[in-house]
Automatic annotation (TrEMBL):
This is Rho GDP-dissociation inhibitor. Gene3D superfamilies: Coagulation Factor XIII, subunit A, domain 1. PANTHER family: LD16419P, RHO GDP-DISSOCIATION INHIBITOR. Belongs to the Rho GDI family. It comes from Vanrija pseudolonga. Keywords: Cytoplasm. InterPro entries: Ig_E-set, Rho_GDI, RhoGDI_dom_sf. GO terms for biological process: Rho protein signal transduction. SUPFAM superfamilies: E set domains.
Amino acid sequence: MAAPHHEDDELAPTATEGYKVGQAKTVAELANLDKEDESLQRWKASLGLGTSGGGGQKKVILKTLFLRSTTRKQGDVVLDLTQSPAELAQLKKAPITIKEGVDYSVGITFSVEGEIVSGLRYIQVVKRTGITVDRIEHMLGSYGPQPEPYTKVFAGEESPSGMLARSGSYNVRSRVVDDDGAVWLDVEWGFKLGKEW
């Protein structure tokens, strides 16, 4: 058996000691639990756990990856993740520009279909000339199916600054995985730093 590739190790979610993935239950099974408790049934309905919801295969559909900063007057920088694989491959070849030395946040929008997905995580590895310069991992949580997309914005970061940081571009690999090890997103994109957005 071949040894795992180092880059895949960087994109593997960290394990929390003592955490065990619970038994998977369908939306219908959860909706039918404690049927006699009226207040609990109302609470479940508010979460979208009605008996009509769910069914089918669990599916997470990533819609957008975006960068948000109060210093950007034009709004968010948005990467459309619903594009074809060939169009997504172009994201790495056409880096976006991030203003140097500013606070910004990364966020994603996604939909869940079919069944509940548990333990979604967003992992991002940033490399420059093949050397890892940053790695972030954010727990997104568990989500049930619903027609409206979910939006999650992560804690802010500060972009590097200076002439050395502005020379060259950065390669980013973003991945979304769940507790079952399913990879729902694995996309590469690029950015460069500039004096303006």
